[in-house]
Amino acid sequence: MESGLERTSVIAPLQYIAARGAVAEFVASQAGGAAATHPGEYNIVDVEIANGRGQNFSIDREGFQLVAQPSAVSDFYDDLLISDIYEAEVKALIKSVTGADQVHIFDHTRRAATDSLRKAVKSREPASVIHNDYTDFSAIQRLRDLLPDQAEDRLQKRFAIVNVWRSIHGTVETFPMAFCDSTSVVIDDLVAVKRLSNDRIGEIQYALHNPNHRWFYFPAMKMDEAALIKTYDSATDGRARFTIHSAFDDPSAAADAAPRQSIETRCFVFF
Fold first, then answer.
1. Which contiguous run of DSSP H or E holds residue 10?
2. What's an example of a GO molecular-function annotation for this chain (predicted)?
3. HEC profile for the chain?
4. How far apart are CA 55 and CA 139, in angstroms?
């Protein structure tokens, strides 16, 4: 039987927004609570998702890339280890890859792929609707909300938002991440929708189906690997600015596959 690492691609359903102007909202779940539902009109499309291992992706070109990133963290559910060890590792990684002057971490989100596990470890569910985390408006607003004393000065120069995504418990066997090559996405494919959470109303991007979209994933991601996802870039010089992505139900996963457990770390990246 062909292993995940050898498989060239899988066919899996991905959830696009049905049309521009369709009613849709992204509702953020609460850690340890029920999985969120995202009310709206959607278009479920069977998509070929290619094995991206061995390809030379760049967050400035395709919008995402896989990197080797061993961590000294022994327990990713320990907040003290995250703040004392992991945040320094993430900052060093992003500076090395992007050449940034400064990195400011503002969020860690843990996710787990079953209801029982989410309740036990107080995580959220994999986000299985195609989206990008920020729009031009919400990226700037997030910067102003979180760094009010620095924001106006920071806005005079280029800044980006990058997510660092990794497994925190063994190999990823279920609900891996799919990433769409940003060079295959045109701006008219993206639709701004409200993001609703307990503390604020934000804005993210959904995507309209385009048969030109090229989707990739990194099968069997290990704990010493990380995926970088650029979800915003203020530069308008042709480099990737937004990266649509989604978790997906991998049809090749074994019936007894271990449920995915992951963490994503969101960072302001200043140049």
1. strand 9-17
2. oxidoreductase activity
3. CCCCCCCCEEEEEEEEECCCCCCEEEECCCCCCCCCCCCECEEEEEEEEEECCCCCCCCCCCCEEEEECCCCCCCCCCHHHHHHHHHHHHHHHHHHHHCCCEEEEEEEEEEECCHHHHHHHCCECCCCCCEECCCHHHHHHHHHHHCCCCHHHHCCCCEEEEEEEEECCCCCCCCCEEEECHHHCCHHHEEEEEEECCCCEEEEEEEECCCCCCEEECCCCCCCEEEEEEEEECCCCCCCCCCCEEECCCCCCCCCCCCCEEEEEEEEEEC
4. 29
List CB contacts of 48: < 8 A, sequence separation 6 or more. 9, 10, 11, 215
**pLDDT per residue as tens digits for the range 160-180:** 999 999 999 999 999 999 999
Neighbours of 224 (CB within 10 A): 11
Query: Residue 87 gets which letter from DSSP?
Result: H
* Measured distance CA(232)–CA(242) in Å, rounded: 5
Q: Cβ of 44: how many Cβ atoms within 10 Å?
A: 11
Q: How are beta strands 102-112 and 245-247 bridged, if at all? A: unpaired
In 3D space, the residue among 207, 206, 195, 64 whose CA is nearest the CA of residue 138 turns out to be: 195
Residues in the chain: 271
Please give the distance of CA 55 from its chain centroid, rounded to a whole number.
Answer: 19
Calpha distance 133→241 (Å, rounded): 11
Give the distance from CA 5 to its chain's centroid.
21
pTM: 0.95
SS3 245: strand
